[in-house]
Amino acid sequence: MNHEEGNNARNESLAMKKSGLCMTIEGVTKDFISGKRTVRALDNFSASVKKGIVTGLIGPDGAGKTTLMRIAAGLLVPDSGHVSILGMDSTTDFLAVQSSIGYMPQRFGLYEDLTVQENLDLYADLHDIPASKRQARYDELMNMTGLAPFTSRLAGRLSGGMKQKLGLACSLMNVPELLILDEPTVGVDPVSRRELWEIVYRQVRDENMSVLLSTAYLDEAERCQEVILIHEGIFLGQDSPEVFSRSLAGNSFMLTPDEGQKRRLQEELSHTDGVVDAIILGSKVRLVTEEPVDAHEVERRFCKNTGFRAESVPPRFEDAFIKLLRDRLKDRGEIQDSTPVSRTPVEGNPDEEVINVRNLVRKFGDFYAVRGISFSVRHGEIFGLLGANGAGKSTTFRMLCGLLPASGGHLMVAGKDLRTAGAEARANVGYMAQKFSLYPELTVVQNLKFFSSAYGLEGKYRKERIRWALDSFQLEPLKDVRSADLPLGYKQRLALAAALMHEPPILFLDEPTSGVDPLARREFWRHINALAQAGVTVMVTTHFMEEAEYCDRMVIMAQGEILAQGTPEELKARFRTDKNPNPTMEDTFIALIEKHEAEKDRGGH
Amino acid sequence: MSRTEKGAKFPAGARSPRSTSGRHVSRGINRTRLKGLIRKEMYQIIRDPSSIGIAFVLPVILLLIFGYGVSLDAKHVPVAVVIDKPSREVSDFISGFRQSAYFRPVIMNNIKEAEHAVMTREVDGIIWFRSNFGRQMFLEGNAPVEVILNGVDANKARITQGYITGVWIKWLERYALEKGVRLRMPATVKHRIWFNASVRSRNYLVPGLIAIIMTLIGAMLTSMVIAREWERGTMEALIVTPVSMKEIIIGKVVPYFFLGMSGMVLSVLMAVWIFHVPLRGSILALTAGSALFMLTAIFMGLLISTAAGSQFVAGQIAIVITFLPAFILSGFVFDIGSMPVPIQWLTHIVPARYFVSMLQTIFLAGNIWPIFITNCLWLMGMGAFFMMVIKKKSRKRLE
Question: What per-residue confidence (pLDDT) applies to A521?
Fold first, then answer.
């Protein structure tokens, strides 16, 4: 480094201190080569992070969040542009950067075969913290994370939420000036999620720490003091979340449709001009319009065939994000007004119990993954299993699909136990697995051909179904692309198409939309709604609180037990208080968990 | 309560627990960090059954299999004996086979039966005395004993052939003595087998096996534990601390070096005490040579781990480029001198080759310094080369 550059760096550092920035990202571009394709993860990305606040990097999976954070932490070298942290270049001066930041990667990097204490010791050693100061720091971190009683436990034996908190504690060991957290709340239960946020804010308050945190959950954006929006490697905007949502003040409404009409109403609104967004929330439909209007005008203008009452509600951050994404698509002329999938109606009595589960138990060794749960799903219903990772959702699902034998209890799907019933019983079921079980090296058409033949479709009918799949899911232009090379949203469409090839009357969806962008998620649910309208019984697992709102009825699971079941409205109503007259699904979930813990404690003493 | 305590220890703004080095990052080696890394690795070794398995259980199993099960010696070879016309001379000849520990003669009625026995691998060869054996011996003084050997196992066939010749010469001597004639041969061969007088294949298999075991511990275990860190994402968290790559590498080499050397000690003890392999060279030379090889093997492991992203791939690569060559091309079982010349060249890039030669010499022949030093130099050269590549390849980066 010559003198002039040294001076520049010093000047920059000085300027940064004055401006109150702790990180500047300037024109960063980064390409990755995967096979024969070059993927642009970041495209001339510029943004900045202010000192002493929590900044959120908001975008769906594959938006480039992790790449950006890795470049900032000196783990990747940008193709062009640079990231400067506290006046130091994160590529050329990475060792200095790394000693002043705390970084928690997505898979938090704990040594699972080391105890909590040994993990702490390792990070204290790595940061060369003097022995005299260690105990005090340990005590502080353990009290803050509530891990004090577990210091001698192996990290691998902690629950998901506790692991995440330990990861956070390790990255806070050296009291970094800047804390970088890559999706710290993925898969964490809402209670631990809330605790994580508290810890983060405490660092900002007590240590004047600056925090950059990435997330794909739009509801979390509202907890940040400032957000940077990223989509497909492109910078979409930066401001405080209120500024974003305020831009849509007067555009958001809650509609109460006539009984049983919510899906029709939503579908109708989805392709009405002047509508940005229409989603189902329990028994209601949330509407965002292009222009600010008043509630009466909404009832007049948008009500054509379905009756509803409209009520003005405060805008959310998500509304603004959706509008940004839609405007971007519109500018590029990519917006398609797709129609949801068609399905020949499934005959059936709405009171018929298509899925029936009684006292279902599954043990792994002496660990109960599912402990005696009971519920039933009726014809044409969308039924949700909501819970954090490790709550027992996927285990329940696998038993229902006949992939895993139950340790006890009784279960029926369309009157049969799929574990023992023959292949023809399985033809009643379509299954879309977590992470979409597609063959990555086969093209779109080859995948569809494979799945249709696996379900025994033949001849003309098979051809018809493949044509149907290509048309309904707009896969025609991509039909010769290898499924590994598809964008996430298209993979999801293809996986759904594959599960529907044999027109099953029952559909199982395991975490179907985790990580896809909000537009793709909306489109996905339009298809699911249309299927339910046609009488398909849909069962879905999710850890997304928002997604649960699409369900007609649902159960909330934790530690293998059902904490509550009912319609989203009923569940939320149980925790309506004067202080919180409109509890969200997340509030409900947390309240249920706390109630459950309290009951267990009472039972234990 | 904790608030006031904390307030006292960390007054606002005073960032006490910040690292002592602060922003002054030294590129050298920090002892606290290194100690932390080594301690972490030790805990992981102790708690991971597969590390212990590869370092201690595998050597025991391999040594037992090779020590007891595999033998390249031909002993109690079953041979069919077909005698068309019994005579005193013939039965005298046969008794030579009966007394030999190398043969187990089976008398068969006719050549058809014997041929069938060879086909079904009941016997490995036929010794056939035709009906005119006695007549030819007396009349012409030159009667052929027909020997048919199953050449499928070429090695065994050759050894058996040698043994039969031995039996034949013994019989000739005895016959001559009986007749009161001195058997006159222009020259005779006098065998003296050095270093392994009893010609036990175990004596050279076991030292060679130690090289194989050390290759497994060094290259395979090391590459897999590093790949595991990448796989589980712990490496990503680790390298974003102020730790230097040098520290990470030394932090891996030291624990696995000691683990490998412990496996080595175990193997040597088993070789000497259970298999009674003589250890004629100095323990010091053995230790020094093993340490050198261990380091080379660990460097290979480190190198593999830079290329492999998962434990599975690391294990596969380690088997293909370290274990198999060590097995086939090191001279452990197959003699390098009898390989085709291009293959002989190839063996020079197999570090195990030098260690096998070193071990076989130290165990069976003693301190032959020229061999020891040549092999050490080769190993040092390879170790240094691997280290240079590692230094060039490993950066605190994800790409």
Answer: 86
A10: confidence class by pLDDT, cuts 50, 70, 90 = very low
Furthest-apart CA pair in chain B: how many Å?
A: 119
In a domain, residue A60? The reply is yes
DSSP 3-state percent helix, strand, coil across chain B (nearest 5): 65, 5, 30
| Interface with A, mutate which of B241, B243, B397 (most A CBs under 10 A) | B241
How many helical (H) and strand (E) elements, i.e. helices and strands, does chain A have? 20, 23
* pTM to 2 decimal places: 0.80
Residue A167 falls within a domain, yes or no?
Answer: yes
Euclidean distance between CA atoms A210 and A503, whole angstroms: 52
Domain range enclosing A549 = 347-428+506-512+533-605
Residue A267 token pair: 């579908």
Mean pLDDT of A290-307: 80
d(CA A124, CA A128): 6
B237/A136 touch (CB, cutoff 8 Å), yes or no: no
> Chain A to chain B, count of Cβ pairs less than 8 Å apart?
137
Give the span between the Cα atoms of A537 and A355, in whole angstroms.
Answer: 9
Contact criterion met (CB < 8 Å) for B399 and A76: yes
Instruction: Give the number of other CB atoms < 10 A from CB of residue A181.
Output: 27
Q: Is 60 exceeded by the pLDDT of residue B23?
A: no
B10: in domain = no
**Residue of A99, A143, A206 with shortest CB distance to B2:** A143
B11: tokens are 């007054």
Classify residue A121: in a domain, yes or no: yes
Q: In the β-sheet with A275-281, what is the strand arrangement from edge to edge?
A: A275-281, A284-289, A252-257, A308-312
CB contact under 8 A, A76 and B397: yes
Strands (E), B263-327: none
Asked whether residue A117 carries a pLDDT value surpassing 50, the answer given is yes
Integer Cα distance of A317 and A42 in angstroms: 23
Q: Domain boundary residue among A194, A215, A239? A: A239
Q: Where does A227-306 have alpha helices with state H?
A: 241-246, 262-270, 295-302
Answer yes or no: do A109 and B235 touch at CB < 8 A: yes
Describe the crossing of helices B88-99 and B154-179 by its angle, rounded to 10 degrees. 130
Question: Rounded CA gap, A275 and A252, in Å?
Answer: 10
Q: In this model, does residue A62 exceed pLDDT 50?
A: yes
Confidence tier at A19 by pLDDT (50, 70, 90): low
For residue B27, the model assigns a pLDDT of 59
Contact B48 A171 (CB under 8 A): no
Note whether B372 and B233 are same-domain residues.
yes
Residues B102-119 pLDDT 10s: 888 888 888 889 888 888
Across chain A, mean pLDDT equals 87
Single-letter amino acid, residue A52: G
CA distance B7 to chain A (A): 10
**For B199-209, what is the mean pLDDT?**
81
Query: Which B residues in the span 221-280 are in contact with A, Cβ-Cβ below 8 Å?
Result: 232-244
ipTM (interface pTM): 0.78
Closest CA–CA distance from residue B305 to any residue of chain A (Å):
18
Q: Is A200 a domain residue?
A: yes
Mutate one of A111, A123, A137 to test the B interface: name it (highest B CB count within 10 A): A111
Backbone angles phi, psi at B252, to 5 degrees: -90, -40
CATH number at residue A213: 3.40.50.300
A98 and A188, same domain (yes or no): yes
For an interface test with B, which of A92, A121, A127 has the most B Cβ atoms less than 10 Å from its Cβ? Answer: A127
CA distance A477 to A473: 11
What is the model's pLDDT at position A249? 86
* Cα distance between residue A59 and residue A231, in whole Å: 6
CA separation, residue A426 to residues A353, A456, B22, B315 (Å): 17, 11, 63, 39
